[in-house]
Amino acid sequence: MSIRAKLAILGLLALAHLSHFLDAVNAARRVTTPCKPSSCGAFTNISSPFILEGDPLECGDYELICENNRTILHNVDYGNGSFYVQEIFYNDGPTIRLVDGSLKSDECSILPKSFPCGSDYMYFISCKVAINSSLYVDASPCANASFSPHPYFYAVDGREISNAIDLHESCIIEVQVPRPFQLQSSSITGLSIFDIHQMFLMGYDVPDYCAPRSSLGTVTVNGTPPLYKIILGKM
Q1: Domain total for the chain?
Q2: Which domain holds residue 21?
Q3: CA-to-CA separations, 8 to 4, 16, 17, in angstroms, rounded
Q4: What pLDDT was estimated at residue 129?
Q5: In terms of pLDDT, which residue wins out, 178 or 211?
Q6: In angstroms, rounded to a whole number, what is the distance separating the alpha carbons of residues 149 and 160?
Q7: pTM for this one?
Q8: Spatial distance between the Cα atoms of 70 and 233, rounded to a whole number of angstroms
Q9: Band (24; pLDDT cuts 50, 70, 90)
Q10: Does pLDDT of 20 surpass 60?
Q11: Is residue 220 part of a domain?
């Protein structure tokens, strides 16, 4: 065997040993890294898939930031707005309860941007003609002229209107958002738009993978999904 061939074999063996050594180091690092729950304000058990800034990155996929005791999720996907994080649920898949930061408690308003993620929706629609149906809640007191291109404006439960084809022919969907958690097991029939507005102030639930991307940026570690930065605190 030539010297060149022997050197090639020795080089391959050295690379194999180095790769094995690095794998062992990484495995030891993963084993020894403490993944303890973190706290921020009312949140006392922040754990995987969530971590606080400064926690080991391998302990979670979504990075949370505690700032001024406010619970805020900044986003770039849905109009550069912000959401208040009201609750985090870990059972049956992580879920975040959000309140759109543009809503005001003392002023009825319509959610300005669609949030097309999840499975249970409410629609805000504009219509050319008045609709006489208990499925359509008059939302015009909460809409301004620039928001609705048609003179009539309604809130509709997505369980009653499964798609655009089911809408009255004079209507178009303006905004699609997750249904408030308080309406998960009840209908909007008999409610006013002011009732529905108050329910939106209590929040709607979305899976963690629906959380809007943060304007603070993302971090990728070893090819894992981006770490979404969420600001935690108390509303």
Answers
A1: 2
A2: 1-31
A3: 6, 12, 14
A4: 93
A5: 178
A6: 23
A7: 0.67
A8: 3
A9: very low
A10: no
A11: no
Which one, of 202, 164, 157, 161, lies nearest residue 180 by Cα?
Answer: 202
Separation of alpha carbons 159 and 157, rounded Å: 5
Tokens read off for 118: 């999840």
How confident is the model at residue 95, as a pLDDT?
Answer: 82
Q: How many other CB atoms sit within 10 Å of the CB of residue 173?
A: 16
Inter-CA distances, 209 with 2, 61, 213, 227, Å: 57, 10, 10, 11
Q: Is residue 188 part of a domain?
A: yes
Sign of the CA dihedral running 133, 134, 140, 143? negative
Please state the φ and ψ torsions of residue 194, each to the nearest 5 degrees. -70, -35
Q: From the centroid of its chain, how far is CA 142? A: 25
In a domain, 70, yes or no: no
Give pLDDT tens digits for 178-208. 888 898 888 888 899 999 999 999 988 877 6
